Amino acid sequence: MKSARSDRIESGYIHAFPNCLRILSGLLLITTLPALPLRGQTSTQPQQRPPAPAQTQNAHEHSAPPTPLRDLILEAEHNSPVIAASIHAWQAATNVPRQVSALPETQVTVQQFSVGSPRPFAGYTNSDFAYIGIGASQDLPYPGKRPLRAKVAEFEANSLHEQSDSMRRDVIESLQRTYFQLAYIQQTLGTLLTSDQVLNQVEQAAEARYRVGQGTQQDVLKAQLQHTKILQEIAHHHEQEGQLEAQLKQLLNRPQESPDIVTEPISQTPVRYSAAELLDRTRQQNPDVRGKSEMVNSETAQVELAHKQFRPDFSLGYMYQNTDRKFRDYYMLTFSVRLPNRGRQKAELAEAEQNQERTRQELQAEIQRVLAEVQKQYVMVQTSEEQLKIYTDGLVPQANATFQAGLAAYQSNQQDFESLLSSFLDVLNLELDYQNKLVDHESAVARLERLTGVTLP
User: What is the pTM of this model?
Assistant: First the structure.
């Protein structure tokens, strides 16, 4: 089955021509048609083909050496601001347990009591009731409340840790997918240029037959039209390459004006795990599942804390009161109990229980979603491996053999041009389809690595 891009090459409906190609096509029709001789005559003027732009001729040649994907992954892990931000969020959350488990702030009080006048210190020396006092008070939560608050905060910090790991895997997967797409573009640029050189041979054969009266002018024009279509596809590849380069530099936190990235050729990654093994690894290592599990633990601790909130809190205070030296000083110890509002606490407990059940259901939904995605990607990997084998062992070599036989038959006037051109397009489209299917396979492998946490060789 042909890909969407292959169909566009065959039908000519890819994107609008660049201005330069439009001009070249117009010049082609003006300069070439009068030069074609009548049937049976020999032309002394060479045929004109739309020249490839300078940047197209060396589109697949890069001065920089290829950069392995593993090096870019390490660079993204160190430089990505998205990953760094998620790590800082987790590290900030690790400081919360110490805050919520600490005792409430101690309150220090200074008092001045006068007798007979609102003025400070009035009557201080003539009444044993006047004094200056200094004291401190401390709120004391019911035993067990502070450890439970710390426990809730620890589980929430653990959840943020898993979210940070999930964000890291998202960035890496996005980097891998973009790298594979860029590799496809850079690899198929060479394929298009090579195919254009082969098409030149076909065009020369059509011109040779036309000059001796065995072919038609239409055959030559169709070959030249296909050459222009390939130029159009090459221009489209340049556009996609620039967009993918920008996306890669964004993921790597590189300046957009930095040198472009050259990819290594894509190779098929074997998957030696069974579906059952990958599903088991997903339950254990998927950060989204583990993050939801930590939230369930947090809400469970929150329910325990809501039960504990029915217990009263306490407050302890002590004050020293200094009077005139001829009177005796005062010493005051206070102990108070803060009784909870049971109606409010019942509502708080009901809320905590509902949140606990909500997170349990969210965990189950997340497990099902992730397992289904792993199974889907595994099926895609297995299917694409079978299809890639069909391409390499059957379709591509068969198409090449058919085209070579057709070219020889056409040169000996034993095959029509339409069949030869169809064979040429089969070779080109099957090669592009193979590269595209290889990108799909590697993207599915990258998705499996993100979901399962395993590193596939």
Answer: 0.78
Percent of the chain residues past pLDDT 90, beyond the cut: 58
Per-residue pLDDT band at 62 (split at 50, 70, 90): low
Contact between residue 266 and residue 131 where contact means Cβ atoms under 8 Å apart: no
For range 76-83, the mean pLDDT: 95
Lowest mean pLDDT among 99-103, 179-183, 195-199, 265-269: 195-199
Q: What is the mean pLDDT of the chain?
A: 83
Beta strands 313-322; 131-140: pairing state: antiparallel
Q: Where are the domains of the chain?
A: 63-107+143-312+343-452
Buried b (16+ CB within 10 A) or exposed e, 34-52: eebeeeeeeeeeebebbeb
Which CATH number is 63-107+143-312+343-452 given?
1.20.1600.10
Q: How far apart are CA 72 and CA 444, in angstroms?
A: 19
* pLDDT greater than 60 at residue 274: yes
| Residue 125 binned pLDDT confidence (cut-offs 50, 70, 90) | low
Name the DSSP class of 394.
I
- Dihedral of alpha carbons 47, 53, 54, 58, sign: negative
Q: Exposure string (b/e) for 121-142, b if CB count within 10 Å is 16 or more? A: eeebeebeebbbbebebebbbe
Nearest CA to 199 out of 177, 225, 176 is that of: 225
DSSP string, 43-71: --S----PPPPHHHHTTT--SSPP--HHH
As a whole number of angstroms, the distance between CA 295 and CA 273 comes to: 30
Residue 453 Ramachandran class (φ > 0 left, ψ -120 to 50 alpha, else beta): left
